[in-house]
Design a protein that fits this description.
mainly beta; three-stranded parallel sheet; 2 helices; about 40% strand; elongated
């Protein structure tokens, strides 16, 4: 599922496209389905369609990221965003993961009463794994978004 501009670039690279989000049809490839924007944003149009059609997960690849555009969908669909050499996803309190020492973890949304283990505090939103092993994040609230390098 891509925007019209991205569809043209992918088509030029010989990549098959399934869906284009646009208000008008363009004969880029045969058998493309179109999803009209109407008055919605691309993100809202895509996510409402995926959720209404019972998709449980989505990977988003984007070069422009406004994190607040995704917040209303985090509790409705498993979301992973790939942006600027980072993997961004929602976690719930009690999250733990193994990482090598020195890996950077960024918190992208506020996490009330944040408690971490296995992480060194670098600045307001950035942490670094202190050793090879498991790090843990606990907080109050339903979820927070984190970013890790890829």
């Amino acid at each position: 599922m891509v925007t019209e501009t991205t569809a043209e670039k992918l088509n030029a690279a010989g990549i098959k496209i399934d869906w284009v989000i646009a208000d008008h049809k363009n004969d880029i490839q045969s058998d493309i389905k179109y999803l009209p924007l109407n008055t919605n944003s691309v993100i809202k149009t895509a996510f409402e369609f995926l959720i209404a059609n019972n998709y449980t997960a989505v990977n988003v690849v984007t070069d422009e990221l406004v994190i607040t555009d995704y917040l209303s969908f985090v509790d409705k669909i498993n979301l992973v965003i790939f942006h600027n050499h980072q993997k961004i996803y929602a976690i719930t309190s009690g999250f733990s993961k193994w990482k090598p020492a020195g890996e950077i973890i960024n918190l992208l949304t506020n996490a009330e009463n944040l408690q971490v283990a296995g992480l060194e505090h670098i600045n307001e939103t950035t942490y670094k794994t202190s050793a090879d092993g498991i790090f843990r994040i606990q907080f109050n609230g339903l979820y927070t978004l984190i970013a890790e390098p890829i």
